[in-house]
Task: inverse folding
């Protein structure tokens, strides 16, 4: 594409486009959207590659915003962070959180799953996670979410919330009642060290000693408990 052709698409004169290319001005938001569409690229294509620590913060920020939009309303959506193609769909948000999420974001999956239970195909999500070896983390989150719902159901709930919880509990119970052989195969796998603060055998032994029954079932080494998921569910309740 020539400079004149691009200028015509952007409704600019060729001289003005030339000035912008030399750093003497900037495009409007509307013109940027035209270019994204025209060249079939994302906003990140025009941004400099982030430094390693900035990249990690960016991933966490995108995850937090995606979780907040999908129902984890206890998380504050961060300003100035645009959604990316990595976290554009519900399955992607679940996958990215299981892989890179911090403890607060992992527990935030509980209200996200409950809120979107009608849109989630648990079997499809599970199968997509198998090649990444994240299916055990998924099962662990689902069982913790189910336990959190049961804890919440023991208290007083508004009718709309109670119905939402009942529907989610039914779907989760059905999925988690898989043939015993399936779960036994997962339990035979090596432990999955979810807690990145564990630095040696002493810490790992402590995690094993204090892990919940659910964590033991799924062979997940973490100090996160069902109560942590319950608190996330309660905090996001409207």
Result:
């Amino acid at each position: 594409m020539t400079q004149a052709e691009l200028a015509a698409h952007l409704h600019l004169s060729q001289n003005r486009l030339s000035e912008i290319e030399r750093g003497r001005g900037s495009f409007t938001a509307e013109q940027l959207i035209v270019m994204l569409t025209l060249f079939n690229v994302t906003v990140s294509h025009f941004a400099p590659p982030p430094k390693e620590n900035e990249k990690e913060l960016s991933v966490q920020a995108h995850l937090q915003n995606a979780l907040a939009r999908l129902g984890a309303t206890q998380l504050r959506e961060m300003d100035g962070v645009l959604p990316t193609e990595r976290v554009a769909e519900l399955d992607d948000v679940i996958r990215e959180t299981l892989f890179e999420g911090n403890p607060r974001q992992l527990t935030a999956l509980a209200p996200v799953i409950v809120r979107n239970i009608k849109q989630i195909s648990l079997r499809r999500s599970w199968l997509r996670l198998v090649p990444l070896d994240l299916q055990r983390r998924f099962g662990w989150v689902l069982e913790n979410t189910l336990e959190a719902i049961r804890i919440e159901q023991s208290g007083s709930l508004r009718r709309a919330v109670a119905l939402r919880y009942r529907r989610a509990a039914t779907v989760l119970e059905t999925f988690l009642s898989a043939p015993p052989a399936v779960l036994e195969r997962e339990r035979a796998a090596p432990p999955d060290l979810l807690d990145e603060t564990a630095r040696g055998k002493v810490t790992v032994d402590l995690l094993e000693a204090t892990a919940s029954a659910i964590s033991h079932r799924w062979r997940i080494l973490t100090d996160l408990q069902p109560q942590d998921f319950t608190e996330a569910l309660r905090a996001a309740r409207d």
Notes: The first helix runs from residue 3 to 9. The first strand starts at residue 192 and ends at 193. The mean pLDDT is 83.
